[in-house]
Amino acid sequence: MRPDSRNVGERTIADFGEQWTAYDDNSGYYGSAALFDDVFAPFMRAADLAGKRVAEIGAGSGRWVGIFLESGVAHVTALEPSAAMDVLRRRFGAQPGRVTLVHAPGDRLPQSGDHDCVFSIGVLHHIPEPDPVCRAAYGALKPGGVFGVWLYGREGNMPYLVIFRTLHAITRRLPHGLLAAFVWMLSWVLDAYIAACAVLPLPLRGYARNVLARLTRDKRRLVIYDQLNPAYAKYYSHGEARALLERAGFDNVRTHHRHGYSWTVLGTRPMVEPPR
């Protein structure tokens, strides 16, 4: 482990604990099966999860857990290392038959080997050392089970990376109140950009029109906050995204360049274990 990776990881967990306890509303398109489908539809839809045993690494305030339950999953294991576990307990603690809450980092996902799907949506790119987490996902799955990941991408969004990496160097050090005020100002710029995308072929036009435009203004502010808040964030190339799952032993690794700026990646635990 790099000398500073543990400290950066701990700060990132604390950042998200503060974020998801302050912003715990997942209503509208932001917390809908339609958004899950937008992320994973090349390979699966939320409706395909009915009757499945599912686990999520980094459940936050329970946005995806709620979607899984509404889609009819048999059971969800929700893993969350931060103070947002209090939000999860409040929201899902009365459903022990369908939801198991685990207050732990991703590499401590129970190695039950009985899950149909494990998801890590917008989480692995905030973990300085993600390989142990991917291996834990492998161990939680049954043979033939699927690990679904969504990651920040490095290709197709260079103007965005230049702007947000510059801002992030400053905003990750701001206290919550100052960051929230700065995000409020930026949200007006984002609103103008979304409106311009309706008539101009601007970068990330598809994402702006098909995703951001469907969010309420408070959720657009949350999307900006989510980009600027955490201590650590990595933007993955296509090769790095594939290798992340391949190193953990997954086969049939499939990738989708979502809206030309991020990576959706799925891998399958082999039916027969390869020789070690």
The tally of beta strands, per DSSP, is 7
Unreliably modeled segments: none
Mean pLDDT: 93
CATH class of the largest domain: Alpha Beta
Number of domains: 2
Question: What is the structural class?
Answer: alpha/beta
Task: Please give the count of helices.
Answer: 10
Distance between the termini: 24 Å
Strand proportion: 15-25%
- CATH homologous superfamily (4th level) name of the largest domain: Vaccinia Virus protein VP39
Give the H and E element order: HHEHEHEEHEHHHHHEE
Integer-rounded radius of gyration: 18 Å
How helix-rich are the residues, as a percent range?
40-55%
What CATH architecture of the largest domain do you see? 3-Layer(aba) Sandwich
Oligomer: single chain
How do the strands line up in the largest sheet? 3-2-1-4-5-7-6
- The CATH topology label of the largest domain is Rossmann fold
Main β-sheet description: 7 strands, mixed
What does this structure look like?
This protein has 276 residues and is α/β, with parallel strands linked by helices. The chain folds into two domains: 5-154 and 234-268, Vaccinia Virus protein VP39 (Rossmann fold), CATH 3.40.50.150; 158-228, no CATH class. It is 42% helix and 17% strand. It has helices spanning 5-22, 33-40, 63-70, 85-92, 131-140, 158-171, 176-197, 205-210, 217-228, 238-247; strands at residues 53-57, 75-79, 99-102, 115-121, 141-152, 251-258, 262-268.
